[in-house]
């Protein structure tokens, strides 16, 4: 998917919502457990109920790997279902991979070609030759971890490197990578100061922002300091939407939660 | 597996060789492609031919994910085969994972409990709460990327942070993590100066050293500056061993290559 198409979808749906499909069999409604593939049954119901309110879905691969072969089958079914029924949706494999060149190419093929995801999240620690193999795929997007929203982010990401925090070095240095126009960034910051400084370095890149919703963080603040001319934001919510209810009406309940966020987003888009 | 058991195996076999099972269907002998599961058939033959010469096997998960469900099945069969037939072998899932707490726990369960690996490689970028969920598993080992052997290592890992290279900060800070005794480190350095400095920070931790063999790097140098009182080294070779031949005799050829390294290692162990 091209970035222009994604921006068009955001304008059309008045939404830059990404729904995290972190599907956990301990949390899905009990009646689904008798289905042949409860993970896929859950995802399908959530997707059917919410696809018009969001522009992206983001399965975190850990949740699928945790169920072994069955989990991978559910992931394959989910991405296939999205690509066939809702090809206008931007899909993110939240895999946080990263390996040396030859091996990165294998991961890139697996996620971009075999599974058919539009994008994948990547850890930056191994540097240029671990990232560029992903960037080589046309109209596919590599979402680099810059500043994450967990406490551990302060261990290394915010440490000063040559007078600048490490996560800013990641932003700066990755701009020099070949095909860097295919980069997006995970930015867990919801604080104004962080976002302003990040936008000084990457004025137009898309930011994938976790941490709005259940994890706290203000959507208005993120929009005020993080929105770019082409919107440039995908704001993710996982648990707050998909686990809105564990009853028969779970899909409808998730749609209501998604609708609340979409309406807030619609207002933010109209402010600009 | 306990570290003591691993050290005992190293002493007994006079080997600290780890064989990387980076199995690529473009490179395996052609006659295997008619097998029902050529990846597993290849791995099984290599393992049967080399298990007495090495102490560890390290499948890189990218090579398996690249083949989708079939790849994961081959990975499961490989680790099961190792655990049933050669339980004395230390197994490493070279997965380079890393995610926030809750999600890391899922990865840890997948690799340690469901698949039954002894260890997994982890990227440090997300910090403490992305690593500690792995460290919580008794007699399981978390192999943290410190200094990798690729060019991209110079993008961030060797940058100065508070007067010390980032990879050294990773070594220092990770020592403060809960259950840090379960940490090992990927150290791609084969240069004396690097290894000496690393050993000053972590005198006893096991180092997983890639880059000896095909990628160059001297075993003697690694041993001289990297070996600790409990050996503390696992030296990996992948392509140099497993692709020694693409003919019918491939397994025997791989054993010969493994034997060469084992004999060098035996001499190094005797020097101390």
UniProtKB/TrEMBL annotation, chains A, B:
<dbReference type="Pfam" id="PF00215">
    <property type="entry name" value="OMPdecase"/>
</dbReference>
<dbReference type="InterPro" id="IPR013785">
    <property type="entry name" value="Aldolase_TIM"/>
</dbReference>
<dbReference type="GO" id="GO:0004590">
    <property type="term" value="F:orotidine-5'-phosphate decarboxylase activity"/>
</dbReference>
<protein>
    <recommendedName>
        <fullName>Orotidine-5'-phosphate decarboxylase</fullName>
        <ecNumber>4.1.1.23</ecNumber>
    </recommendedName>
</protein>
<dbReference type="InterPro" id="IPR011995">
    <property type="entry name" value="OMPdecase_type-2"/>
</dbReference>
<dbReference type="GO" id="GO:0044205">
    <property type="term" value="P:'de novo' UMP biosynthetic process"/>
</dbReference>
<keyword id="KW-0665">Pyrimidine biosynthesis</keyword>
<keyword id="KW-0210">Decarboxylase</keyword>
<feature type="domain" description="Orotidine 5'-phosphate decarboxylase">
    <location>
        <begin position="16"/>
        <end position="254"/>
    </location>
</feature>
<comment type="pathway">
    <text>Pyrimidine metabolism; UMP biosynthesis via de novo pathway; UMP from orotate: step 2/2.</text>
</comment>
<dbReference type="InterPro" id="IPR001754">
    <property type="entry name" value="OMPdeCOase_dom"/>
</dbReference>
<dbReference type="GO" id="GO:0006207">
    <property type="term" value="P:'de novo' pyrimidine nucleobase biosynthetic process"/>
</dbReference>
<keyword id="KW-0456">Lyase</keyword>
<dbReference type="InterPro" id="IPR011060">
    <property type="entry name" value="RibuloseP-bd_barrel"/>
</dbReference>
<comment type="similarity">
    <text>Belongs to the OMP decarboxylase family. Type 2 subfamily.</text>
</comment>
């Amino acid at each position: 998917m091209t970035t222009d198409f994604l921006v068009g979808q955001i304008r059309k749906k008045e939404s830059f919502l990404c729904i995290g499909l972190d599907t956990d069999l301990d949390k899905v409604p009990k009646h689904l457990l008798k289905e042949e593939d409860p993970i896929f049954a859950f995802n399908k119901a959530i997707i059917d109920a919410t696809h018009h309110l969001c522009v992206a879905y983001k399965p975190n691969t850990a949740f699928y790997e945790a169920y072994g072969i069955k989990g991978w089958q559910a992931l394959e079914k989910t991405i296939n279902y999205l690509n066939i029924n809702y090809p206008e949706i931007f899909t993110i494999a939240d895999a946080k991979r990263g390996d040396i060149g030859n091996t990165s190419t294998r991961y890139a093929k697996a996620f971009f070609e075999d599974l058919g995801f539009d994008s994948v999240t990547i850890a930056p620690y191994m540097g240029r030759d671990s990232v560029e193999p992903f960037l080589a795929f046309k109209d596919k997007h590599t979402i680099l971890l810059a500043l994450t929203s967990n406490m551990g982010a302060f261990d290394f990401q915010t440490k000063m490197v040559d007078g600048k925090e490490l996560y800013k070095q990641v932003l700066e240095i990755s701009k020099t990578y070949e095909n860097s126009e295919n980069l997006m960034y995970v930015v867990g910051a919801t604080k104004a100061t962080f976002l302003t400084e990040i936008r000084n370095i990457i004025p137009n890149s898309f930011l994938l922002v976790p941490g709005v919703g259940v994890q706290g963080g203000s959507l208005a603040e993120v929009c005020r300091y993080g929105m770019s001319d082409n919107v440039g934001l995908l704001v993710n919510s996982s648990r707050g939407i998909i686990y809105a209810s564990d009853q028969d009406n779970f899909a409808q309940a998730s749609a209501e939660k998604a609708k609340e966020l979409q309406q807030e987003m619609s207002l933010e888009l109209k402010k600009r």
